[in-house]
Amino acid sequence: MDFLYFLDLSQSIIDGVLFGAIYSLIGIGFTLIFGVMHKINLSYAAASIGAAYLSLLVVSAVPAPLVYVAAAMMGGLLGWLVYLICFRFLPLDNPLASLMSTVGMLLAIEELISHVTRGMPLNFPALFASTNIELGPYFIRGDLLFVFVLGCIAMVALMQLLKRTRLGLATRAVAQQPVAAQLCGMSVNATNASTFVIAGLLGGTAGAMAGAAIGVLSPLMTLPLTVKGLVVTVIGGLGSIPGAIVAGLIVGGVENLFQFLRGVSERDIYVMLMLFVFLVFRPGGLFAAPGGRD
Amino acid sequence: MDFYLGLAQVIGIHTLLGLSAWCVLHTGQVSIAQGGFFAIGAYVAGMLTSMWGWPLGLALLAGAILSGIVAVAVGFPALRIKGLMLVVATTAFAEIVRLVFFNLTWRVQTPAGLVGPDGSLGFGGIRYFPGNGWSMLEISFLIWFLVAFVMLFLGWLDRSRVGTLWRAVGEDELAAQSAGINLTAAKVSAFGVGGCIAGLAGGVFAHYATHIEHNNFGILLATFAIAYPIIGGLSSLAGTLLAVIFIQGILLEGLRFLGDWRSLLFGALIVVVMLVRPSGFLRRSLGESFGRTKHA
Amino acid sequence: MLELQNLSRHFGGVKAVDQLDLNVIRGEILGLIGPNGSGKSTTVNLITGVYQPTTGALRFKGQDLTDLAPHQRTELGIARTFQNIRLFGHLTVWQNLWAARVVRDRGWSGFRERWLSGAKAAREQAEELLVFGDLAHKRDHLAANLAFGEQRRLELIRAAASGAELLLLDEPAAGMNAEEIADLDQRIRRLRDQGRTILLIEHHMELVMEVCDRVVVLNFGRKIAEGSPAQVQRDEAVRSAYLGADHHA
Q: How much is the ipTM here?
């Protein structure tokens, strides 16, 4: 194995880690919702891509950076909608029902996108696509770096929101003890809805990031993003945000590593196997959440 | 007429798939792995009849048994993972299986030419039915015979001690342990039985379709598999059958006139059904009136 | 019959159970009391195998329990009821009992009994328990649909259904009125007279003092007193632990 091979290998990994910020955001979204409602919203990644599509509506009207903001906001809106439809009115003790409901939603969103776009991938504005930064022997792709930085900004913003605002406090309180939180005057529904909105903001950003990194948006992206997002959530530990962040970067890097070693068609096998290994040895994930009761 | 027979065949296969998920769901494990076992059964049975000339019955049996063995192997690590993590883990498993078959190329020379799975091109030439002159009617009878057999078997199992133990584990694992029930045995056996049935369904599917490829075995199929028992109501077998008929027959076919918008409405309809009747079509009391008695 | 030696269970810095020595004598009704948080439920969970001890040993009928899974301990002869009722809600009363009988059918004698003689003896025993619990008329009702008192009785007979020689009753009187408690008192005695040993965890002092042969008192995970009910009632350490909370109970 010569030096060049090793260089290419590590270049792949670096690119993968940068891309992994997208997985981190999706993983955070899944974990946020799980942390608060103890349920998984399977339509989350689809809604995120959907939000990115929606943001394309304004692409001709606003400068490129604002498209990302639009995507985030659309994501928040979609998040609220999903909460209303799939969670608000379903009995809490029937997790299967809302699971199925989100599956229905996932199907609906994917089909809707396919119909409206007639299955054609759409271009997504990628910033800094033509810049490359040289760092020693490595090239850091401008667009990937932008995506990564955007992701970091989103994560920091989220942490600030959770730790420093009343809303964040309410979210954490409801997650740990919904009944007591209600008795303290917090509206569980409002808090849950706002969690979905926050997750949606993140998701919309992630969707836009995915579009930017790949260059196009396509409905075929929804399922793989869902699966990878779930993998990230589980590896990071259900309910743990730092876990999702780290796990997302790891999955991104590993994905590219295996793609380099074994090619595109086999790479996911190894990513899944990695998940399995994790689950066998560390079922709680990297940072198992201190999680409420039981 | 052929159209209705074809529909009946699809409903039959999906019912088997739903029944396999029913077993596993009973012990409280939500598993997306049924799609993976379905795939294994399909490829194994298909390969045995088309590449090595096995008789259908043996091939189906072999597919079912092999799937069952893999299911048991998956069932053990699944013990350590609860609830939604299990959903993810089994999804990952199903994806691994799909990707393995996506990459599988193994062809042998037969009198009919080169036959076998061909990587991304899929696995064609499973010509047992046409090659042996089976009519649509006969195929339908076979499928429904298997459905009836599996339903009777599961009904018997459910009324017996095993069914009570499975349900007890699904109700409350802690109480079940304290009552002396061996959790491992219960959960792994449910996985195994479910895997066998899914494998059987897959084997039949392969021959019905004559050409299979990795896309047939995606996560969506596995989600359908658990959707049937959930929508039909977990407490009864008949509910699963009803759900399949409803979804495949009425929804997918009946909405055919809507053309491309069909799948979209389908998704929306699932959402609506869950809102209106979260515990499924057939709740406990209705299920009993279908003849399922409650004695252990 | 049951020996706990120097048993400890720590959760991080908290010593839920601290160097506990406890002996349960065959055929007795032993009461385990203590203020909230004193480690009673943790002790039960240690005995049944839900928790593993941090240090110390557990022996039942001379056999070391440490490596046995909960269902294996039930097989040996230890059964429990739960503080918050944990019945199999969507199973019928009969099915709840039947599920618990599975331990009796292990091994060759179990096989013979179940398949060859049609489980006749097992059914009879379960029927007897139904009668004992005054639930025979409700045998086909779903457990979740029973009244509270009936649910408690079902928990009790389900624990007995596994053929256990040692019954751990975790606050069976919680939420009961005086009449129900008197009824419970009788049942506990009859269960003992039928040949079982009982470890009773309770807050209701009247019941404990009435029905128990001996009482052990825990506080902060440690044993602070042991003896007959009368002795324990007079004990200084016990009084200060409860600090005036119990003069009605």
A: 0.77
